[in-house]
Specification:
The protein is built from twelve helices and nine strands. By secondary structure, the protein is an alpha/beta fold. Helix 6 links the parallel strand 5 and strand 6. The structure holds S-adenosylmethionine.
């Protein structure tokens, strides 16, 4: 029997009704599905019943051997491609896959935020439907004015519709994690890319990286005012002028400003 390894964030989803709910909520087109961390293959098995083509990335070589045996037919007939490697290594070396895809996965929680951010930046990725720690899912799906509205919410909201689908209790996993989980669905807007498949909001990767640094500064101390946080990187007098021009109240905290206004402010600061 294969034992779960803590260092790879292994909590295997065993609840049939939750697996069924994930499949029900998946996008219903013929695009490729990418799964990160197939584990013992319970979700993979269901995905293969519903999808034409699945690529799965698994870091644990012991699990990879098990998956290769379990899905030998699907691997042979090319319905399943199993990549036995660290998905982050793969993703930094080249595109995750060379066609449009949906990401459907029960993510390893220790790198979940990082993986969602990579998928948001990957213009080939159309939908991100992932099980993660509930608290993190809530941050991605938060709306302006909510206490947990953050840079992650703005990055998600700028290019996708964010939905918190349902909670999943620790008892649904083996071994049970210490936290409650939730399924988050981010459906990217159809028109967020131009005709070359590039994100229309940012002219290049450098501009996106600058926007992320700007958000980091804006939310550095969430209880302080936005202007105070931003004055660490921009002269205050300039900020006062831009706040006035954009009709942003001077006493606003970072979570109170909408994504649209964050983009407008960023454009001015550039
Ligand atoms: N999908 C399975 C399920 O639902 O039962 C397993 C989910 S478990 C929470 C996370 C899985 O991600 C494990 O199989 C783990 O080995 C794998 N994993 C962890 N880090 C990874 C990485 N960097 N690249 C690829 N797979 C990884």
């Amino acid at each position: 029997m294969i034992k779960a390894k803590k260092k790879f964030g292994q909590n295997f989803l065993k609840d049939e009704s939750i697996l069924h709910k994930i499949i029900q909520a998946m996008p219903k087109d013929k695009r490729k599905i990418c799964e990160i961390g197939p584990g013992l293959g319970d979700l993979t098995k269901k995905l293969l019943l519903h999808c034409e083509s699945v690529t799965a990335f698994e870091i644990d070589l012991e699990l990879c051997g098990y998956l290769q045996e379990t899905f030998s037919d699907e691997i042979k007939n090319k319905q399943l491609e199993l990549v036995c490697d660290d998905v982050l290594e793969q993703w930094s070396a080249h595109a995750l896959v060379d066609q449009e895809y949906h990401l459907v996965a029960n993510l390893p929680y220790y790198i979940a935020t990082n993986l969602i951010l990579k998928a948001l930046d990957d213009n080939k990725c159309q939908t991100i439907m992932v099980m993660i720690q509930k608290e993190v899912a809530e941050k991605f799906a938060a709306k302006t004015g909510q206490k947990n509205f953050s840079g992650l919410s703005i990055l998600a909201e700028s290019i996708s519709k964010a939905e918190l689908l349902f909670d999943v209790g620790p008892e649904c996993f083996d071994p049970p994690p210490k936290v409650t989980s939730a399924v988050l669905k981010l459906t990217k807007f159809k028109n967020y890319c131009d005709e070359h498949g590039e994100n229309k909001l940012f002219e290049d990767q450098e501009a996106l990286a600058k926007f992320k640094s700007f958000l980091k500064a804006a939310f550095a101390a969430p209880r302080k005012t936005l202007i105070k946080n931003l004055s660490q990187i921009v002269p205050k007098a300039l900020l006062v002028q831009y706040f006035e021009e954009l009709e942003i109240p001077i006493n606003f905290r970072p979570h109170q400003l909408s994504s649209d206004k964050y983009h407008l402010l960023f454009k001015k600061l550039k």
